[in-house]
Specification:
The protein is mainly alpha-helical. Among the domains are: 153 residues, no CATH class; 70 residues. It has 19 helices and five strands. It starts with a helix and ends in an 11-residue tail after the last helix. The structure holds adenosine-5'-triphosphate. The site of adenosine-5'-triphosphate has 12 residues, from helix 15. It holds the Pfam family Kinesin. It is found in: Cytoplasm, Cytoskeleton.
Length: 431
């Protein structure tokens, strides 16, 4: 590489091209990192950290913590890149297309999926077959968050990974006719799998699946309800696309000027307030049903603030999943294997948990009231700077107002649930 080229080329690319760097695991990792970032036109981010000898395992974290990515756009691209890496690039709902020409990077007109890059590195899509073992191992240590010693290579290579439950190219259909083979077999052959609607399993794809994430995080936005509309509350979540959303956080400056801070988050899928429960099922649980027949365990759970729609979203899923399970069980290919189906259902949300969480909310509100009382006592002292106290009091009071509103809503839901569970109307027996 000539001196001129080296200067004008981004440092990350120079690290990759340097022949002396290919031999060690660490430098191999730098090169992989550089190529990975280059695939999204972010190669300039690798140079400051990689050249200072930062442990390449920490690089993605450091980049996300703001040591590298400066602009919102860079952070967004980096997030998408990391997500694509997680999913081997194939599940990305849309390519992570750069909006500007980065220095030495890929031009807009070429795009990440230009033939030049498709064969090597797509946006976060690593061609594992084109890498040597050293590169692959450093990549694995990056992706899996732990260091792989070359002496452990055999162990690592023999460690079995379960196939992903979320292979995006899979479009399982439960409605098609299944021409089942009659032979009894524990594990369906590739032919029977294809006949049952599974994608044909080839060895190349298996290798790719091995590096695919096993967890899929899907966010569903609940519509603003009537009470929130009546209270003229703002809708603070905007779904940007099917994989990212923006939270608009209302804030107050010290001088009490209101402003809104935007926070962008990326997920594997984001469903807006218009999606139906069936669509939620199609994105979340449906793809994992056939995997259960390959003796893989699958779990689906909801996480979220109270009133955010966990019950509304989760309640129909077991029924839909059971329907599909039954349909698959009746296909000749599985009927011959004599699978058995057990179902159990319980809600981990008893009376005590309800009361405990309600008590916590009351305690939080009381804490704010105590803060307010303390401030009031201070402001009452002679010579106190009234301006400061007024500002602080406003903060405390606005927090209290918000708390009281949420407490009120919580109380209504609490009563509703108690009624639902027939706790309020239950007649007390003689003591
Ligand atoms: N996607 C939605 N579309 C329409 N209504 C919804 C949606 N999600 C939730 N809701 C409504 O919002 C309210 C709160 O939802 P839900 O009870 O599911 O919340 P939750 O997260 O389970 O709350 P908690 O943690 O208190 O049990 C319910 O009245 C529900 O019908």
């Amino acid at each position: 590489m000539g001196g001129h080229t080296q200067q004008s080329k981004p440092a990350a690319t120079a690290v990759y091209d340097h022949p002396g760097n290919a031999g060690t695991t660490g430098d191999g990792g730098d090169a992989v990192m550089a190529r990975w970032l280059q695939s999204a036109g972010l190669q300039h981010l690798a140079s400051p950290l990689a050249s200072t000898g930062v442990n390449q395992r920490l690089l993605p974290n450091l980049l996300m913590q703001g040591y590298g990515a400066q602009s919102m756009e860079e952070k967004q691209r980096l997030l998408k890149l990391m997500r694509n890496l997680n999913f081997n690039g194939e599940s990305a709902s849309e390519p992570c297309t750069p909006t500007t020409q980065s220095p030495g990077g890929i031009g807009v007109s070429e795009g990440y999926y230009s033939p030049v890059f498709r064969g090597d590195f797509g946006a976060g899509l690593l061609d594992l077959h084109s890498m040597d073992d050293t590169e692959l191992l450093s990549l694995l240590s990056l992706a899996r968050g732990f260091e792989l010693e070359t002496s452990n290579m055999e162990h690592v290579n023999s460690e079995p990974f379960e196939p992903s439950h979320f292979m995006p190219a899979v479009n399982y259909s439960f409605d098609g006719d299944f021409d089942a083979p009659t032979s009894q077999q524990q594990k369906p052959s590739p032919d029977t799998e294809a006949a049952a609607g599974f994608p044909p399993v080839d060895k190349k794809n298996n290798a790719r699946e091995n590096n695919v994430a096993k967890i899929k995080v899907v966010v569903r936005k609940r519509p603003v309800n009537k009470k929130e509309i009546a209270r003229k509350e703002d809708d603070i979540v905007t779904v940007s696309d099917n994989a990212s959303l923006i939270v608009h956080e209302p804030k107050l400056k010290v001088d009490l000027t209101a402003y809104v801070e935007k926070h962008e988050f990326c997920f594997d899928a984001v469903l807006d307030e218009h999606v139906t429960n069936d669509e939620v099922y199609g994105v979340t649980v449906q793809p994992i049903i056939p995997i259960i027949f390959q003796r893989t365990k699958a779990t689906c759970f909801a996480y979220g603030q109270t009133g955010s729609g966990k019950t509304y979203t989760m309640q129909p899923l077991p029924l839909r999943a059971s329907e599909d399970l039954m349909r698959l069980l009746h296909q000749p290919v599985y009927r011959s294997q004599k699978f058995k189906l057990w179902l159990s259902f319980f809600e981990i949300y008893g009376e005590e948990a309800l009361i405990a969480s309600h008590r916590k909310e009351i305690e939080d509100t009381m804490e704010i009231v105590r803060e307010e009382m303390k401030l009031l006592a201070e402001v009452d002292q002679p010579g106190s700077l009234i301006d400061n106290y007024v500002t602080q009091l406003s903060f405390v009071l606005s927090r209290k107002a918000a708390s009281l509103v949420s407490l009120q809503a919580r109380l209504a839901r609490f009563q509703h649930r108690l009624k639902e569970q027939e706790i309020l109307s239950r007649k007390r027996g003689p003591r």
